[in-house]
Amino acid sequence: MDWLKRLPVVGPWTARLTVTHAWRSYERLDRVKWTRLAAAMTFVSFVSLFPLLTVAAAVTAALLSDDRQRELENRIAEQVPGISDQLDIAGLVDNAGTVGIIAGAVLLLIGVNWVGQVRDCLRAVWELPDDPDNPLVTKVKDAGILLGLGGAVLVTLATTTVASAAVGWSAGHLGLDEHGWGSALLRVTAFAFAVLADFLVLLYVLTLLPGAEPPTRRLLVAALTGAVGFELLKLLLSGYIQGVATKSMYGAFGVPVALLLWINFTSKLVLFCAAWTATGSKAEEGAAARRQPAGAPEPGVRNGRTGGAPGPAAATGG
Asked: Where is this region: Disordered (predicted)?
């Protein structure tokens, strides 16, 4: 980057950029090999998605009427031609309890592992050592964190669903034009409610999972940035899925790929938010450098090597 700073036009802008908190947060991410951490988080999240979808399918199937079952079969047949003969929605409905219990148990096991892997990745961003607790105690703690996080997510989903429904109901009863200012204002209101819900979840994730206590201002800025970014990624994903879901040839392949990319982008967003909370101000870093003994390695340097996660499990996802 030094050669960019010497350029006549972009040099001053580059110099200003490299002293911002956002850039120093990125430098921390680059030091801890954040692409590997994001890949680990993406893998465990994508694997955890299958038992979660199975539980959701079992609960939904138990609540379906006969007409809704046939409609669901027809919709799936439209999206994936040739699979309708292999579907047994009625069997899923009849065995919804058994399927739900088995999938719930698998989801709990995978979910606890997901919490552990995400915690290791966030602690790697903070450049903290591996948790020295007893493995059994750690698993119990992770189960508690998973239940708390699941409850927080359910509350946020309920909040955003009610807000969206209220916006639609208000627009319909007020007779607002779909493309008018009134409808746009209601959509912005629903977006703001969704951002608020995501903000509260990120406060939970950025503090409890890594076991850190970042300064309040940095935590609030990181959580708000992540919440807005998460909602924008959701809009991007939903727009892409709506575009490819109507094409039966591409829908079966485009949706999983889009979902995988969305999980990866979301993981990188969470890591950036964690780096924002973990990166100190210029004054704090200067004070830490002055307190550092002469000859001691720089922050993030271990055994003569820069970067890397504090433990092998954090960098490899296992």
From this structure: 285-318
- Choose among 295, 120, 307: nearest CA to 209: 120
Please state, in angstroms and as integers, the Cα–Cα distance from residue 208 to each residue in 15, 144, 146, 161, following that order: 35, 11, 11, 26
Residue 107's pLDDT is 84
Q: How confident is the model at residue 252 (pLDDT cuts 50, 70, 90)?
A: low
Compare 307 and 14 and report the one with higher pLDDT.
14
CA distance 93 to 72: 12
**pLDDT grade, residue 316 (50/70/90)?**
very low
Please return the burial class of 119, using the count of CB atoms within 10 Å of its CB with bins 0-12, 13-18 and 19+: buried
Interior/surface letters 258-292, b for 16+ CB within 10 angstroms, e for the rest:
bbeebbbbbbbbbbbbbbbbbbbeeeeeeeeeeee
Amino acid at 80: V
d(CA 184, CA 190): 10
Q: Using an 8 Å Cβ cutoff, are 152 and 201 in contact?
A: yes
Mean pLDDT for 290-303 is 50
Q: What is the pTM of this model?
A: 0.74
What is the number of alpha carbons within 13 Å of residue 130 lying toward its C-beta? 15
Please check whether residue 312 lies inside any domain of the structure: no
Domain count, the chain: 1
Full domain range(s) for residue 203: 36-281
- Please indicate, yes or no, if residue 161 is contained in any of the structural domains: yes
Handedness of CA 169, 172, 174, 179 (dihedral sign): positive
Is 18 a domain residue? Answer: no
Q: How far apart are the first and last CA of the chain?
A: 34
Would you say residue 23 lies in a domain?
Answer: no
* Residue range 44-93, pLDDT digits in tens: 988 888 888 777 777 777 776 767 766 766 665 555 444 445 556 666 66
